[in-house]
Design a protein that fits this description.
This protein is of the alpha+beta class. 21% of the residues lie in helices and 17% in strands. The strands form four sheets. Strands 8-7-6-5-9-10-11-12 form an eight-stranded mixed sheet, with no helix packed on it. It is elongated and about 85 Å long. The two termini are 34 Å apart.
Length: 529
């Protein structure tokens, strides 16, 4: 198990190299003092040291809990552990860190932590966790993150980038006393977040799939400009709504023929009565004569019911409050129902409603993996689908007839983002494609509701490198642009963030976005790579 990082609340000191100690002076001679007196003195000193470190002789510390009071009206040890310590006053402003100081901080935060404070008893820790103290932050104070880290007022920091030198990280020099690791996903790369751990790292060798590559340029349109069927950044998503698969029932998806027929009998309930009466005359006659004594008869009934249900889901909305009064609607049905969908979306909703009404009798549409990739070098964006991540299909989506291309315009790298948090369903999928225009590279943004049919460009960024990508930071609710920096020599990434995806990442110069990350002298070249 791992423990949260707890840090002393005393004022941090800007790290500087320690002073060179003076030459050690020679130890005084014992002179004429008898050796047995020296032994007694050493023993007495040890006893005094033990008494100071234990019992009531120790000095008060920010981390030491006060002993349980026996006087009435005074808090007990349990109460003391339950109450948060008093917040420290804000620190005075400090000068900006030099690269050397930043490197010192990096070394300090990447070595094994040493603590002299004994951990509290496990039982007390479990019952009365310490409440994190107010974070100690650089001034002026900016945004406080969910885990207690406080960003500086100027964010992202606009430090001068020096190739090869470690970049100063503001919150490394002024960390909060306790960093909460219980919320969200945080990357445990060093001892900045983890104080101690009993976990043992084991590297497991992967098993290579025998049928690799699972995606290959085996279609004619994937060979234009050079054979390529490869995600070039792009994105692979598991879409729980599954807008991609056809909503039509397959015969084998009518899993329980006898159960369905039993629930379609007159007098069962309002929905059963409606569906039974909506069947064609031919279907009613065949159901009346159905015995189900052999497998061919059961398969034939599956085909009949699938055809009848497909006719019904293509018609008007099946939902009425009285019909579905006793049906527990799924989340996806509840999302789509208020939108009063038409066309293919209505057909999909009607299928979901039947699945909700007959959860054991009908097979529920499953989420599918959606893989976006470059189809032909520098050409359009194609979409492959899979139910297991190994076997991929390339359906004809009708955008470019006869192919699985969903966005035919040219692109280099691209980012496809499934955004379940956007309140506008028409912006559920977002596509940024990197391409040249007017002798300048930039990203163009497009929206889609289903990941197949894409709208026109809604914005064009300022100048960026070709391998630039975008992602959403869910903890701070910002869109982050990871921008390629450099064409020759040192390569690095620049950073830009926006709250509103349509606000646009606009800058006047490619060097305006702050430097984010790049190789430095702590990342030496390796001969084996």
């Amino acid at each position: 198990m791992s423990k949260k990082k707890q840090r002393p609340q005393s004022q941090p000191v800007t790290p500087t190299p320690p002073p060179t100690p003076p030459s050690a002076a020679p130890l005084p001679s014992a002179g004429g003092i008898p050796w047995h007196w020296l032994g007694l003195a050493v023993l007495a000193g040890g006893l005094v040291g033990w008494a100071v470190g234990n019992g009531g002789f120790s000095t008060k510390s920010d981390h030491a809990a006060a002993p349980a009071s026996k006087e009435p009206g005074k808090p007990s040890l349990l109460t003391a552990l339950s109450n948060p310590p008093a917040a420290k006053p804000p620190l005075p402003p400090s000068a900006a860190l030099t690269p050397a100081q930043s490197n010192a901080i990096f070394q300090m935060t990447n070595r094994v932590a040493v603590t002299t404070n004994a951990a509290p008893p496990a039982l007390l820790t479990a019952q009365n966790p310490l409440v994190p103290s107010a974070p100690v932050a650089p001034t002026p104070v900016g945004e406080t993150l969910f885990n207690g880290i406080v960003l500086p007022a100027v964010w992202p920091p606009k430090d001068t980038y020096k190739p090869g030198e470690p970049m100063p990280v503001p919150y490394l020099s002024n960390p909060p006393p306790v960093i909460d690791i219980s919320a969200g996903r945080q990357l445990f790369v060093d001892d900045f977040l983890i104080d101690s751990t009993t976990l043992k790292r084991v590297w497991h060798s992967p098993t290579i799939y025998s049928n690799n590559p699972v995606l290959r340029p085996d279609k004619e349109w994937e060979k234009t400009g050079g054979p390529m069927a490869m995600p070039f950044s792009d994105g692979v998503w598991l879409d729980p709504m599954n807008w991609i698969s056809s909503p039509n029932f397959k015969p084998e998806e009518v899993q329980d023929v006898f159960g369905i027929l039993e629930r379609l009998k007159p007098g069962t309930n309002a929905l059963g009565n409606f569906l039974g009466e909506s069947l064609s005359a031919e279907a009613k006659a065949k159901i009346k004569d159905f015995k189900g004594t052999d497998m061919p008869a059961i398969v034939a009934m599956q085909q009949l019911l699938a055809a009848e249900f497909n006719r019904l889901i293509a018609g008007p909305l099946l939902h009425e409050p009285t019909r579905f009064a006793n049906v527990q609607l799924s989340d996806r049905s509840m999302v789509l129902l208020p939108q009063q969908p038409q066309g293919d979306k209505l057909k999909r909703l009607n299928r979901w409603l039947l699945e909700d009404a007959f959860p054991r009798e009908l097979f529920r549409m499953q989420p599918v993996f959606a893989c976006y990739y470059m189809a032909g070098y520098g050409r359009g964006t194609a979409l492959a689908v899979s139910s297991n991540g190994l076997d991929w299909e390339k359906p004809d989506f009708g955008i470019v007839p006869g192919s699985n291309i969903v966005h035919p315009e040219p692109r280099d790298s691209a980012t496809v983002w499934l955004d379940a948090n956007d309140s506008d369903p028409k912006r559920r999928y977002k596509l940024w494609r990197s391409h040249g225009e007017n002798k300048q590279w930039g990203l163009s943004l497009h929206f889609s509701e289903d990941g197949i049919h894409w709208g026109p460009r809604v914005l064009r960024t300022a100048s960026v490198g070709d391998r630039s990508t975008v992602f959403r930071n869910p903890f701070r609710n910002v869109w982050v642009y990871s921008l390629r920096h450099g064409w020759e020599g040192d390569r690095a990434r620049r950073y830009w963030e926006v709250k509103d995806v349509l606000a646009g990442p606009y800058w006047n110069d490619p060097a305006e976005p702050p430097m984010w990350v790049g190789a430095d002298r702590l990342d030496p070249m390796r001969d084996d790579l």
